[in-house]
# Entry
Amino acid sequence: MANGLENAMRTAADKIAHYVQDVAEMKVETLYVRVGADGPTDFCQARPIAQTIVSLDGDSKVILPLREAEAGRFEVDAGLFDVHQRNVTTAIEYRARMLNALLSALQSLRS
# Structure
């Protein structure tokens, strides 16, 4: 019986270790496809329009959609950035909930 419990604990520990590796870096990509009048949209042709990478240590990298404006300046496409930012916020909230659930599970194992 103890052998079964030990195996279950090892399996759980392996899954937790794998999850911790996965959450070390969170990547959010917002993609677009062209909607054409000549038939159904091919979602396999989706292309990135914005990307955010957030590491567990707080480092982050953001790639934004820009368009060239007057005099060689660039401006952010506000509508696309808003959609992307909502995706990032949702991903961060989800990750926080999952980490809290993981911590709670680990604390209950210690009790």
